[in-house]
Amino acid sequence: MLRPFTPLPKITLIGTLAYLCLSPLTVSGFSKTLPHSTTTMASPMQPAEKNKPMILILTTGGTIAGQASGNGIGYTAAKQDGNHLVSAVPALQNEAEIKVESVSQIGSQDMSDAILSKLAKHIQKVEQDPTIKGIVITHGTDTMEETAFFLNNVIRHEKPIVMVGAMRAPGYVSADGPANLLQAVKVAASPAAMHRPVMIVMNDTILDAHSAQKMNTTSVQTFQSPNSGPIGIVNEAQVRFFHPAQPAMNRIFAIPTTTPFPRVDIIYSHVQMDAAPIEDAVKRGAKGIILAGVGNGNTSSEALNALKKAANNGVIIVRASRVATGFVDRNVEVDDDKNHFIAAEDLNPQKARILLQLLLNNKETNLIHIQKAFSKID
Ligand code: ASP
Hints:
Oligomer: single chain
Number of helices: 11
Radius of gyration: 24 Å
Number of domains: 2
Bound molecules: aspartic acid
CATH class of the largest domain: Alpha Beta
Shape: globular
């Protein structure tokens, strides 16, 4: 005869789960504590009275804080303050205690060296504040990857630092800012997000600052890491990282104290390229030039000769590519050893520019050391 199904008493199930979650794993008589879980879940694992972490939201402006103009197309970035952003997303209160501070109120096309420094110094202080468990930075998407990369190279951090923005301003149909902000706070509040690089969280996707790029002018799925893929995903239920956190491989620089940072120009290569833009950059006092080259960081013979001349005069030349994916390798079609050039590897021109500025600000002119910084070798 079939016996009627008797559910386990609830208390036993919860108790068992709690035991499994909290007790160290015992393997063949050895007690071994697992490293940080790479997933944080919402219910049913969490106690009812969750002790919510304090998350600091630093606002800088951007479309996420914009205002639609009413014609269905236009909007103005950086119109709303941080309290407005937070009050538009009541669900944030379920995730964390929120503190909001404004750093700037700009469209990120106007991001400046002075604001970058101010933001970095502020975050460095917050890193020392034990009451704050994670940091979220709201930012325009246009230059978000540069700010993320800059912060990742100047702040030695343990706490999650998460950048977030929006592609559709408040007032648009299906504005993405509120959901992105909620996901960013979820990630910043997650213990699994500690000891990670600076992150960009947009549209369910978690990306690292080194490889994230804006890839589409208008799509909500604009940020991608075309070489390496996302490092995790976030949805209503969970924050998931694909791999455990690893020690940072990049060199950490002192935050520049003087602005503007050393002048580094980006020169975009094209058909019928001549020497003029390179010579102009040198005349304007560029200490470094990033070539947004064709293909594997290449350019016309005329432009190449101008770059060689600049390198001989002490300007640091970094070959990057105008192509969005792949690496620029040393000594393939262009002889970097002979010409004293640097290969940008997987850094796009705008990130290569930031790294070279940090190196120059650090008085680094040794080409071997500079190449090592681009290759992430100590
Ligand atoms: N121009 C805006 C900005 O970067 C675009 C955006 O936020 O998506 O501030």
